[in-house]
Amino acid sequence: MATETAPKRLKTSTTPLIGTHNGHFHADEALAVYLLRLLPTYTPSTLVRTRDPALLSTCHTVVDVGGEYSPSTNRYDHHQRTFTTTFPSHSTKLSSAGLVYMHFGKAIITQRTGLSDGTEEVDVLYEKLYTDFIEALDAHDNGISVYDPATTATLQKRFYDGGISLGSLVGDLNANWSDTDTPKQQQQQQQFSAEEAQKQEDDRFLEASHLMGTTFLRKLDYYHKGWLPARSVVHASFAARKNHSPSGHIMVLTRSVPWKDHLYTLETSSSTPENEKVLYVLYPEGPDKGAKWRIQAVSVSKDSFESRKPLPEQWRGVREDKLDEVCGVEGCVFVHASGFIGGNKSFEGAMEMARKAVEM
């Protein structure tokens, strides 16, 4: 962003101006601005941070301020009382991040990945990024709890989990209330002109925008280059799972890939009966022919630490020769103390461990 004051920027800019509010900033508009600037139309755009309606009216696109949602005039605010817009097939009210993503997300994805617009891959990435990244920002900015208060009134945390999130990190980039607390600091503050003070705030906003935007791009790159290609691998393994276990409880991957999301989606879309769901996933530790194999228990849900069926209790925390003896399988390497994962020196050994665990 240029360092000139808003009026000067308006006079000198020949590219589409992006407007948002000044003052305390949040993760949603920080991301919204970054997303816009990923597109060729907005790449050279100057940013105007103000609440002055006259200045905002000169901007090509305005996000998170102005009290108006009108795609035809490039206005993307969500604070107005009448606003109820949600992302397709979701119920969370959008923030400025969700609004910009809903309208420009597919264009950003195709530009970044080189995939063709209208393909299934773009649609899958578009939905995945909203579900796993954008929606939480929308909910946070609109004060929507991830849990239904009616069903969680008696829930209590067993420990403090740190409260660290992208939203909190962006919040930390705002000026502290004590920045002008001491006389010396007050004197220093008075030496700044209004323009200089605004520039300092704008620089903080740009840092927040960079944090949000680069995190978004890392997610997009991972989903495109890692998660999406794994989809076909998991689909093939899921289709062949009964070759290894008549019940379908054991799935074998030919290589280690991100499998959890795809497995849960496949089981849901295929209406897999509970008694045929995958309990254990086997995969090699590396690409080499002699690589060791892992056996991993499937968790009850994507974010759960609880397994559908942990590896047998008597195996847990035992290693190598002692595990061979307890397990009755040669080549055992280890089983984690919680029973969520174990290892064997060979595929055959890992498969035998999995079959025994299914029956126990």
What percentage of amino acids are in beta strands? 5-15%
Total DSSP helices: 11
**What is the rounded distance between the termini?**
63 Å
What characteristic shape results from the CA principal axes? elongated
What is the average per-residue confidence, as pLDDT, rounded to a whole number? 90
Strand order of the largest sheet: 2-1-3-5-4
- The SSE string, one letter per element, is HEHEHEEEHHHHHEHEEHEEH
**Secondary structural class:** alpha/beta
**Overall strand count:** 10
Describe the structure.
This protein is of the alpha/beta class. It is built from 11 helices and 10 strands. It has helices at residues 6-12, 27-37, 53-56, 96-113, 120-141, 166-172, 183-191, 194-239, 260-269, 320-327, 347-359, and strands at 18-20, 47-49, 61-63, 69-70, 75-76, 250-252, 280-284, 293-297, 332-335, 341-344. The strands form 2 sheets. A 5-stranded mixed β-sheet has the order 2-1-3-5-4, with helices on both faces. A 5-stranded mixed β-sheet has the order 6-7-8-10-9. The chain is elongated, with a radius of gyration of 26 Å. The relative contact order is 0.08.
Overview features:
360 residues, alpha/beta, 5-stranded mixed β-sheet, 11 helices, 43% helix, disordered N terminus
